[in-house]
Design brief:
With about 750 residues, the protein is of the alpha+beta class. Helix content is about 45%, strand content about 15%. It catalyses: (R)-carnitine + hexadecanoyl-CoA = O-hexadecanoyl-(R)-carnitine + CoA. It is an enzyme of class 2 (transferase).
Length: about 750
């Protein structure tokens, strides 16, 4: 067969004259190009590693310092004040002066590198700028920003600032406990509050001091005292299904569909995903900078591609490969390995479309047990079954193909997306499909799964342990812009590009020999996953009455405005306030991830305009405290982890960490607004993304502020809870937003 011929590098036959060896020039060329590409990649990483290690200085600066030193010596000037002669005397006979000059110049240059780096780290350890009143920039902050720019070097790469970022410092025990008690004061009855204060005082005077010393020791030793424990204990050691409970999704553009051809849309997405990975490997992605000046940690980008969560009995692990030349495609229960490079070059979108069309046209049936295999990544009770059932032979090779692929792609037979004639039902169904699908058609353990539907709509389901949503969001913004805006499709909806000169091997079917006990495990996991998915009540809707443009005219933070509206909606929905989680990033510090902003405060219980402004400003203060390492929950979490290691039973920590987050919220940030400019393309509206409910009797709310006049909300809850209703809560949010904006309208008229 043709594919067999392409797969063999050489062939031989036995003839009367001896062995006739026939080399395949095409395959040998592929071998040569593959090795060449690998060496180019290694050299690029070596070069970037050197630049990263010297940043903010450039390697060429060594040459400048050296030439300046040697030039001075040639002119019989001694810039070392006597050090070069002393160095020269200690050297063997030869060009002592030149060698001494080289050593001195190198030492001076190394001292300059270290002084620049530590000066920059000291500057970035200052966070007073973030607490300046909104819309003002004090002179001290402007001077500080000038110094940061001066010591930040030029043309930084993605990881250039990593060694200059400060470590995350733990707050003092007293400060954390004080802020914790302030956060629960509006939620507890007086008797409960008094009891909680007693527990906090006893903890501060007793076991808390010992636990704090261990946390401070870790903060001194480790790059980040929170992140590794957070990843392990919150994500990897969790034994709950990651589908719905941990994974999140990102939605397609709402009102613009670039093409209705499934293979074409998938091909463009694959091509630009791999281009983004190429930029990532070369560190060509610009590090994100607050105010265009303050760098944020980029470490979470490292495991975006070629990464998979490997299930275990007590804990899962993350496997990350340095490179992968393929991805695995799932269609109608069949798994295909798709190579995305040919001749050392990335396949064009048109070539990828042809390869994907082969998969779509394939009429073969799933092998026994293959149809619902992915359900093993969706359920809980047999999550470690992958290792047990696929440890050797053909099963191991097929599982390796999935786990070591660049990412996972599902060609879904459903049609999803926004429909003008039925906007409510269509968006709700779209969200649920991206969150859990049929529970057997996404590989939930992969770092992310791209889902492309039959009508050309698309989205992403992402695993959470390797990074937080803004990291995946940055990549997704790039993909949407490149796919829909910058590259696009032909007039008939097909991909641009040309086919390679040589013939391509078709995608390879993965082979499985699934035993009967594995089939039973798959059925068990699928039943559990579908019960979980069926319980998710999702409501996604756009709020078009106003957006951040009007809110900013009221001189208040759009995020604080929305958070206070959510508090009002919660009170109207339940008749009481609850412990509220809002995610805030801590990437101003090395290896930072997130902190919690406890949005429900005593100030937020008020409704009048003057008190609204106080509540809004207090929320912004809490958000800024969380960003600068002075939050509450990650510190308490680490104290709890230390207590478990030491076998210390703390009634205070047990009570703190047992409180449910009945309202869990997160904003999806738009990080590259220039890519999808709504002023020139008003239909290119990003749908944002969402996640499942955190508490059985609570709500999960994600929102994205799109442009100046639109806010998209994603609300989740559980049907099994009679106290919650996602559509009802959506209505409460709209009502609260209108009432709050009317406060400012009334104040303006009265003024």
């Amino acid at each position: 067969m043709a594919e067999a011929h392409q797969a063999v590098g050489f062939q031989f036959t036995v003839t009367p004259e001896g062995i006739d060896l026939q080399l395949s020039q095409e395959v040998l060329r592929q071998i040569w190009l593959s090795g060449l590409r690998a060496w180019q990649r290694h050299l690029t990483r070596l070069k970037n590693g050197l630049k990263r290690g010297l940043y903010p200085m450039h390697p060429s600066s060594w040459l400048v310092v050296t030439l300046g030193t040697l030039g001075s010596l040639h002119l019989r000037l001694d810039p070392s004040l006597g050090f070069i002669p002393r160095i020269s005397q200690a050297l063997p006979v030869g060009q002592r002066d030149v060698a001494g000059g080289l050593l001195f110049a190198t030492g001076i240059w190394g001292a300059m590198v270290l002084s620049m780096r530590y000066t920059l780290r000291g500057l970035l350890s200052y966070h007073g700028w973030i607490f300046a009143p909104h819309g003002t920039t004090p002179l001290s902050t402007r001077m500080w920003m000038m110094m940061v720019r001066l010591f930040s070097g030029r043309n930084p790469k993605l990881f250039s600032f990593q060694s200059s970022l400060p470590r995350l410092p733990p707050p003092t025990l007293h400060d954390t406990l004080t802020r914790y008690l302030e956060s629960v004061n509006p939620l507890l009855e007086p008797e409960e509050m008094e009891q909680r204060e007693c527990l906090a005082r006893d903890f501060e005077k007793g076991e808390g001091r010992k636990l704090q010393r261990y946390v401070q020791l870790k903060a001194w030793w480790a790059p980040n005292y929170v992140s590794d424990w957070w990843e392990e204990y919150v994500y990897l050691r969790s034994r709950s299904p990651i589908m719905v409970n941990s994974n999140y999704y990102a939605m397609d553009l709402l009102y613009h569909k670039p093409t209705t051809i499934q293979a074409a849309r998938a091909a463009n997405v694959i091509h630009f995903m791999m281009l983004y990975r190429q930029k990532l490997d070369r560190e060509e992605i610009m590090p994100l900078m607050l105010l265009g000046t303050v760098p944020m940690c980029s470490s979470q980008w490292e495991r975006m591609f070629n990464t998979c969560r490997l299930p275990g009995i007590e804990t899962d692990t993350l496997q990350h490969m340095t490179d992968s030349r393929h991805l695995v495609v799932l269609h109608r229960g069949r798994y295909f390995r798709l190579y995305v490079y040919h001749g050392g070059c990335l396949l064009s979108p048109r070539a990828l479309q042809n390869q994907l069309q082969i998969i779509l046209d394939d009429k073969s049936l799933p092998q026994p047990g293959e149809l619902q295999l992915a359900a093993l990544t969706a359920g809980k009770s047999v999550s470690h079954g992958l290792a047990a059932f696929f440890s050797e032979g053909v099963n191991r090779r097929s599982l390796d193909a999935i786990e070591k692929g660049a990412f996972f792609l599902t060609l879904d037979d459903e049609e999803q997306g926004y429909r003008l004639e039925d906007p409510v039902t269509s968006l709700d169904a779209f969200s649920k499909s991206l969150l859990h699908g049929n529970c057997d058609d996404r590989w939930f353990d992969k770092s992310f799964t791209v889902v492309v539907y039959r009508n050309g709509s698309m989205g992403i389901n992402a695993e959470h342990s390797w990074a937080d949503a803004p990291i995946m969001g940055h990549c997704y913004e790039y993909i949407l812009a490149m796919d829909a805006v910058l590259f696009g499709y032909t007039n008939d909806g097909n991909c641009h590009g040309s086919l390679p000169s040589g013939s391509l091997s078709p995608p390879q079917r993965l082979q499985w020999l699934i035993p009967q006990n594995c089939v039973s495990a798959i059925a068990q996991s699928l039943a559990e996953a579908r019960a979980l998915a069926a319980d998710v009540d999702f409501h996604t809707f756009p709020f078009r009455e106003f957006g951040k443009g009007r809110v900013k005219k009221c001189k208040t933070s759009p995020d604080a405005f929305i958070q206070l509206a959510l508090q009002l909606a919660q009170y109207r929905d339940k008749g009481s306030f609850c412990l509220t989680y809002e995610a805030s990033m801590t990437r101003l510090f090395r290896e930072g991830r997130t902190e919690t902003v406890r949005s429900c405060t005593s100030e937020s219980l008020q409704q009048r305009l003057a008190l609204f402004r106080v509540a809004s400003e207090h929320h912004q203060k809490l958000y800024r405290l969380a960003m600068t390492g002075a939050g509450i929950d990650r510190h308490l979490f680490c104290l709890y982890v230390v207590s478990r290691y030491l076998g210390v039973d703390s009634p205070f920590l047990s009570q703190v960490l047992s409180q449910p987050w009945r309202l869990s919220t997160s904003q999806t940030p738009q990080q590259q607004t220039q890519l999808l400019d709504l002023r020139t393309r008003p239909d290119y509206v990003a749908g944002g993304g969402g996640f499942g409910p955190v508490a059985d009797d609570g709500y999960g709310v994600s929102y994205i502020i799109v442009g100046e006049n639109l806010i998209n909300f994603h609300i989740s809850s559980k049907f099994s809870c009679k106290e919650t209703d996602s559509h009802r809560f959506g209505g409460r949010i709209c009502q609260a937003l209108r009432e709050l904006i009317n406060l400012f309208s009334v104040d303006k008229r009265n003024g």
